Amino acid sequence: AARKAGLVSGGAVPIIVAGRTVGIIDLFSRARSELDARMSETLSTLALQIGQFFERVSQQQGIMRLTRVYAVLSGINAAIVRIHDRPLLFREACRIAVKEGEFGIAWIGELDPETQEVVPVAWAGVDDEIGADRLSIRADVAAGQGAVGEALRSGQPCVIDDLEGHGPVGLRRREALRRGYRSLIALPLLVEGRVVGVMVLYAREQGFFTADEQNLLTELANDVSFALEYIAKQDLLAYLAYHDVMTGLPNRAHLLDRLGSALQRVRHHPRERVALVLWDVSRFRNINETFGRQVGDNVLRELARRFRSAWPEEGEVARVSVDQFGALIDGDYEPADIAHLIEQAAAAVLGKPFAVGEHELRIALAAGIAVGHGAGEEADTVFRNAEAALRSAKRSGLGYLFYGPEMNAQIAETLLLENRLRRALECDEFVVYYQAKVCGRSGRLTGFEALLRWRDPDNGLVPPARFVPILEETGMIIPVGLEVVRKVLADMAGWRAAGLPALRVAVNVSPLQLQQKDFVAALQRVIGEQGGETLLDLEITESMIMSDLDSNIERLTELRGMGLELAIDDFGTGYSSLAYLAKLPVGALKIDRSFVATMCSAPESRTIVTTIISLAHSLGLKVVAEGVETEEQAELLRLLECDQLQGFLYSRPLPREEVPAFVRAMPGY
Ligand code: C2E
Ligand code: CA
Ligand code: CA
Question: How many angstroms is it from 627 CA to the middle of ligand 1?
Fold first, then answer.
C-alpha cells in the first residue's frame, strides 16, 4: 500500500513499557533517505516518551482501582460493626461493593452442605431472578466447573480475567457479559475453617483483579467471614456482653464485674488484697500492618492461650481491648509476691516466639498494676489506676510498674528529667548528629538527616526516644526544635566554608511544632538569621499530616514556597488515604524502618514496600528507605527503584566534626 502511494523509504520503532514491547511507530516517507540517523533518534525518543506515558497511565489506573477496593473494604467493615443481622449484612455488603467499588454485580451465596449447592441470598446490580439460580459446586458437573465451584472447593479466591470464552455460561455470567463485565473474583467465606458461602464480584475491566486487589478483597472476605462467625452464635447478645469472641476470653465488662466482687470480698479480710494487672502488647499495630490482620488475630489468640495457662487457675484473665489483656488475682499476697507472679507469667508468655508462617515473631509486653484493699474502693478507680501505671510503664520502657508509691517515684523521676531537660536547653547540651542518605542508583551522597542527641553531663549521649516524648509533653519541643534548625544551618554554613559541596539536610519536625500557628514565621526568622540559600528539608510523620489535612496542606504549601522540601516520615505506619496523598504538597515518602527490616524475610513487608514505591513514583514522589542495614536489603531496594537509601549500612549518625571526612570519602566526591 505504501509503495502504491509513492512512499519509498520507511522505518519502525518499538514502544516499550516495563521491558515489554507493546506497540510500534511505523513511518514511511516519500523521499529516499528521509529517515537518517538524526531522525531515527528523534523517533526513538518519541517512542520512549509514549512508552513512559503508557506506563504512568497504567500505574494511575492501578491506584484508582486500589482506591475503589479500599473504599469497599472500609464501607463493609463499618457495616459489620453496625449490623448484626445476617441477611441484612449480606445485602449491605453487596450494595457497598456495587456503589462504592463500582463493581458491576456483587452477589453472595450460601453453601447448602447437603446438596453441595450454592444458593444466592443477596445481590446488587442484577435482577431478582438470580435468587432462583442455584449453582452446584461439584467438580463432576458442568455447573460446578466455574470460578464459584473452584473457590468453594479450594477455599481460595478464584479469578477469571476475561469472561469471554471461559467455560460454561450460567445465568449470571450471561447477564454479566451482556452488560459488558469482563472479569470476576469468587471469594470463599469461611467459618471455623469450613467454607459456608461465597462472595462474587464482577468488574468491567479485563484483568481487574491483580495481586494487590486480590489481597485486599481476601481481607474483605475474611472480615465478612469473621462477622458470620459470631453472628452464628445463638446466644450472641449474652455471649458478647461478657466475652471476647475472637479469643474466647472474658472481656473488660466481665473483668470489671469480677474486680468489683473481689473488692467486696477482701474488705472483710484485712490481710488480703486484689491485684489487677493490665498487659499491653507493644507495637501490636505494627504486627497487624506488617503481616495483615489475620496474622494479628492469630497472635492475639495465641497470646490469650498463653496468658490463660500462665496465670494461676483461681485468677481471672480477660481481653480488655484490642491489644490489652487483664489479669486479676486476690488473696493473701504481698506486692513482692504479685511482682513475682507477673514476672513468671511474662516469662511463660514470651518464652517461645510466635510463629507467623515460617517466621518467628518476638513480642514485648508492658504491664501496669493496681492493688486494692477493698475499703471504699470502686472497681472503676482500681482499673483506672492500673491504666495509669501501664501508661508510665510503656513510657519508661520498664517491663511493669505499680500504681502507688513505686509509681510516684517514677513520676518524681519524670519531673526531675523535665528540669534537667530545661537546663539542657539553657546550657546548650543538645547536639545534632547527621546520618547520610545515598542515591539508590549511583550510591552517591544525596544529603543528611539531622538527628537530635542530648549530651547529658551525667549519663553521656542520650538518644531522642528517651527525651523527645517529654519535650513534646511539656511543649519544650518548640524551642528545642528551632534550636535544632539553628544548629543545622550553622553546621551547613561551616561545612561550606570548609570547602564541601552544598548538601541538603533534613530536620525532623514534631507534630506539635507544625500545629503552632507561627511555625512557618518562626522558621522563616531562623533561616533569615543565617541568610544564603536554604537547602533544608523537613520530615513530618504520616499520622500527623493526615490528622488536620486542610490546614496542614496550607502550611506545607507555604513551607514549600520557601524552598523547603517536605517528606512524609514513617510512611506505612499510619492510615493515609491514597486519595489525599496526591493532594499533599510533599516531595518524598520515607518507608518506615520496620518494613525495610523485614522485607527480605516477610513477603507481606515486601509487598508493602513494592506498593509504596510504585505508588509514590506514580504520584511523582521520591522514595527514601530508612534503616537499611544489609547489602541484601539495599540490593532489593535498588531493584525496586527506591530513590534514596539511608541506614547503618552507609553510615551511623555522625557528630558534625566527622561529616567533612565522611563526605570526602564518598564515591563521586
Ligand atoms: P526517625 O525520624 O525515624 O529517625 C530514624 C531513626 O532510625 C534514628 O534514630 C536513626 O538513628 C535510626 N536508624 C538509622 N539507620 C538505622 C539502621 O540502619 N538500623 C536501625 N535499627 N536504626 C537506624 P534516633 O536518632 O534514635 O531517632 C529516633 C527518633 O527520634 C527519630 O525517628 C525521630 O522521630 C526523633 N527525632 C530525632 N531527632 C529529632 C528532632 O530533632 N526533632 C524531633 N521532633 N524528633 C527527632
Ligand atoms: Ca526522620
Ligand atoms: Ca522513621
Answer: 9
